[in-house]
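Tokenised fold entry reproduced for absentees:

. . .
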Amino acid sequence: MNSLFRRKPIAELMVETEGGLRRELGWGDLVMLAIGAVIGAGIFSSIGTAAAGEVLPSGEVVRAGAGPALVLSFLLLGFVCGLAALCYAELAAMIPQAGSAYAYSYATLGELIAWIIGWDLILEYAVGNIAVAIAWSGYFSALLSGFGIHLPAYLTHGYRTALFSSDPAIHGLLETAPRIAGIPFLLNIPAFLIVALVTVLLAMGVRESVRANNIMVIIKLLVLGLFVVLGAQHIDPANYHPFAPNGWRGIHQGAAIVFFAYIGFDAISTAAEETKNPQRNMPLGILVGLGVCTVIYVIVGVVATGLVPYQQLRSSDPLSRALEVAGLHNASWIVAAGAVVALTAVLLVFQYGQPRIFMAMARDGLLPRWAAKIHPRTRVPLISTVVTGVFVAVGALFFDENEIYDLTNIGTLAAFAIVCVGVLVLRLREPERPRPFRVPLIWPVSVVGAASCLYVMKGLPVHAWERFGVWLVIGLAIYFLYGVRRSRLNHPAG
């Protein structure tokens, strides 16, 4: 039993980074990666559900929306993620390894907890990217429609999207779509194709990927700026009343939904092995990136809920829909175009992060060795990159984005909570270890950070907890059947 909680020495983690990935990124690149990862599906898609709530085709309310109080949901999450970000910053500066929270947990809480975190991170990066790809498809289809190009609905919506949609037109695809062997032919082809293209780009190398991300970040910031400037001129103060139609319950549940908007800042930590002077640049990238994103979210939330009644934001493309309802048709398609670019950036960063988690776990023997192989020319984990791309692309064909949001949110929040605990544990176990960045007020930050993550998790629906439980059971089965027997830490000679 003790072997399950054996910790990996930090010195060993540091040795593994030598001669591996190429250090090319500065703190500015990391901030751009943060903006690329964070500002995307949350602000362009899940913000609508967070404001208006989720309603099943039967009319049953799954969870209440925050209404105009969405801005308070963003501030709550900014506080929660800020605490987690401080903990990430301390650990990332100490342990500049590609494994992110997985590596930190291995050094602080032991192998079994590290495995659980690594398994949870798959929910954040790979499974989360399925939702991002689906959101991308929605905006891409809206953009094409603006040019008079209308793709068949059965080629832009997956089966489970149609199954759970409260929109009669989309839900009706279950009856109207072409059938093969009696089964409705419903596949999200655009989502599949964009994942394939991003995977090819990532396989080319990190520098090429970062350059592409930087360009896309600039475009998305310009588009959001346009939305704010134009939308602010058409705000109707009456739309802010009632400010919190469902009280604190709506704010809490809205935060649980829109937490997806904050997922990704920790992706910066997966770039630690490719960062110049990580002891300085990792904390800067994490904290500055999160701060910039929070300010942007609050401003956009204020404008969106003031532009139209919050109920009308219940859409896969809420910002475009808000401008369309307000009569700003030309701006609507520009925002749709910006969302396509923004979501592509999120896909890029998430697809960047997941293979590096696989690589770190494979180094430790918990996954097959091929997952750790680095291409000799591009210096990227090529096989892991391709495997991740295939998994996400196939998932995007079939699934519904809302069910993916919930699963991703709960897995990521669990990882954040454990990181908050881990930084405190390491302070107690190794107080003399050099720390280039130190979390101020470590006890309240760590304890309140972990508790806050659990509180936000509480706002997720029961089915999210059930699916998360199944996910953990599957992960533990893989660990005990494969990982624990192959672990390099438990079998150094192997």
